[in-house]
Specification:
Helices cover 39% and strands 21% of the residues. A four-stranded mixed sheet has the order 1-2-4-3, sandwiched between helices. 19% of the residues are buried. By secondary structure, the protein is of the alpha+beta class.
């Protein structure tokens, strides 16, 4: 569980990230979960953009991704989610 100071630090790192994944009309799928997991293992911090064509509510999407990928939500602004999962290598050192 991340505290406020850690979330602020991760949000500051996420400003320079481009969206790694986009969720559209197909919604959530196993391939999306696999891709997000791989990206989290490699980078620890991932930005996901939900397109207007997605019929699933953004709150449901964030819950499902966090549950299936075992990651934490850092930020949810509009249709953009920032996710974090600590890897074994520990590339990002939290305060």
């Amino acid at each position: 569980m991340l505290n406020g100071k850690q979330k602020r630090y991760l949000r500051s790192l996420a400003v320079n990230l481009n969206s790694s994944f986009q969720i559209g009309k197909d919604g959530l799928s196993e391939n999306l979960y696999k891709g997000v997991n791989e990206a989290l293992k490699a980078n620890e911090l991932v930005k996901v953009n939900v397109l207007k064509t997605c019929e699933t509510e953004i709150n449901e999407i964030e819950i499902e991704i966090c549950r299936n990928c075992k990651c934490e939500l850092v930020q949810h602004i509009g249709k953009t989610l920032v996710l974090y999962k600590k890897s074994k290598e520990g590339k990002i050192i939290l305060p």
